[in-house]
Design brief:
heterodimer; A: alpha/beta; 7-stranded mixed sheet; 4-stranded antiparallel sheet; B: mainly alpha; Arc Repressor Mutant, subunit A; 2 domains; two-stranded antiparallel sheet; 6 helices; 51% helix
Chain lengths: 310, 144
């Protein structure tokens, strides 16, 4: 089902995105520093992190709209600036830049003229599903309708990698569900890779199968969501329980006599603890609150380059 | 025959893995006779368009149904139901059902409310199936 890419790199199938030692500095300091991870082709990857973690910077770097200060980005095996890969990347920015004076139909025509490959029927169906009239001017549309036109432009260009910055933030629940369904059917049909950022973890959990967690410009977690979940345990016990190795503890809370600890598993059940499986939200929040544990990259999330510092 | 009746409902809060919800709902449809041998399951694309779940999750569910011997993929055509889970004894016109309907009506005239009846039935079912486990895989599943 997944599309095959000619580069055939690394273990775990072809690579869509590979980022190595990536950093970007603005006037006020580093927005992103020493980021390394890999996204295999065909995965739906959530990019999660608090405000100011560097999500938009990372997405702009991968979309090749911004040059890195240091490190490298490869998309489908091609280095930055390679024109061969430009047309294979679709990017929907957070502020959805469109020409306000154009009608919806004119905007789609622009997409058709500017892209080497274009699926007019697909673009029109995305717009039609949201009942956005083709004759309406962009300037008169609501935020959600403009999101839909942006998605129509992005999907019409038939990208192999689709990057979406906070795509659902101004959509009502029905439109969210429809657009997610649309994205997932694109993934099922064409095997596209999606990288999308969001604050709403619950909304990503069913649709995404891959995750990159950013905090303060660095990667905390990267890899298959099920693998990341399986790598953590939620322990409940008291002082009598065997203390987990300090380097495995992500977060430890004490309430009266009860101790709750979110830890990285080492493949055995620690003595004296009740072992629970944490939810994705629990794992992410514990990492964001503590930030003191070493980054965890699953095997398929490690870039092939040797310049990795995790 | 293409089946339109199978509408997967994914409950994020249930604590049951999404692929398992798809497996269970398919089995449920097989038990009720809504799905019959020869029927085609919806394609992964159809399921994800309606539910917005990840396509790999749907494929994993279908592989699990295949492993349980309930469905088989035919390349290029889709995934088809191989066998039914419906018991004739549970059909709408079966004697077992008639007896149960009779019992329910007596319970009602004895003054039992809906909750009382459901609790009573659940406890008898628990007793019966814990005492003599049988057809294990099917009986355990609902409680995961």
């Amino acid at each position: 089902m997944n599309a095959l890419y000619p580069d055939g790199s690394a273990e775990g199938g072809p690579t869509a995105v590979e980022v190595s030692g990536l950093g970007r500095r603005y006037h006020r300091g580093w927005a992103l520093k020493n980021c390394s991870f890999r996204i295999p082709a065909g995965r739906i990857c959530a990019l999660v992190g608090p405000n100011g973690a560097g999500k938009t910077t990372l997405m702009s770097l991968v979309a090749q709209l911004l040059a890195p200060t240091e490190g490298s980005v490869r998309v489908f095996g091609h280095p930055l600036g390679d024109l061969a890969v430009r047309g294979r990347i679709g990017f929907v920015a957070q502020d959805k830049p469109l020409y306000p004076g154009f009608t919806v139909a004119e905007t789609l025509r622009l997409g058709r003229e500017l892209n080497r490959s274009w699926d007019q029927a697909k673009a029109e169906s995305v717009v039609a599903q949201g009942k956005v009239p083709l004759t309406a001017r962009i300037g008169t549309l609501s935020g959600g309708q403009r999101t839909r036109v942006s998605m129509a432009l992005a999907l019409g260009a038939m990208p192999d990698l689709l990057i979406l910055d906070e795509p659902m933030s101004d959509l009502d629940p029905l439109a969210r569900h429809q657009l997610m369904g649309l994205l997932m059917s694109e993934a099922a049909e064409r095997g596209i890779t999606v990288l999308m950022s969001s604050h709403v973890i619950a909304e990503l959990e069913d649709s995404c199968d891959y995750l990159v967690l950013l905090s303060e410009g660095g990667v905390l977690l990267a890899g298959d969501i099920e693998e990341i979940l399986a790598a953590h345990q939620l322990l409940v016990g008291d002082d009598g329980a065997e203390a987990p190795a300090p380097d495995r503890v992500v977060e430890l809370n004490r309430t009266g006599r009860q101790i709750t600890a979110l830890v990285r598993t080492d493949g055995r059940a620690p003595a004296g603890w009740e072992v629970n499986h944490p939810t994705l939200e629990e794992v992410l929040l514990a990492h964001l609150r503590s930030g003191a544990v070493p980054a965890l990259l699953t095997a398929e999330a490690r870039p092939a380059d040797r310049t990795v510092a995790a | 025959m293409v089946v339109e009746v199978l509408d997967y409902r994914i409950d994020r809060r249930s604590g049951v893995a999404t692929y398992l919800q798809i497996v269970q709902q398919t089995e449920h449809a097989l038990r009720l006779g809504l799905l019959r041998p020869g029927d085609r399951l919806p394609t992964a694309k159809e399921v994800v368009a309606a539910t917005a779940v990840n396509p790999n999750t749907v494929l994993k569910a279908y592989r699990e149904l295949e492993r349980r011997g309930l469905v088989a993929p035919r390349p290029g055509l889709g995934t088809f139901v191989l066998r039914s889970l419906a018991h004739q004894e549970a059909a709408a016109d079966s004697p077992l059902r008639a007896e149960l309907a009779d019992w329910a009506s007596r319970a009602r005239s004895a003054g039992l409310g809906r909750d009382d009846v459901e609790a009573l039935v659940a406890s008898v079912v628990d007793e019966e199936y814990q005492a003599r486990p049988q057809g294990g895989a099917q009986a355990q599943e609902g409680n995961q």
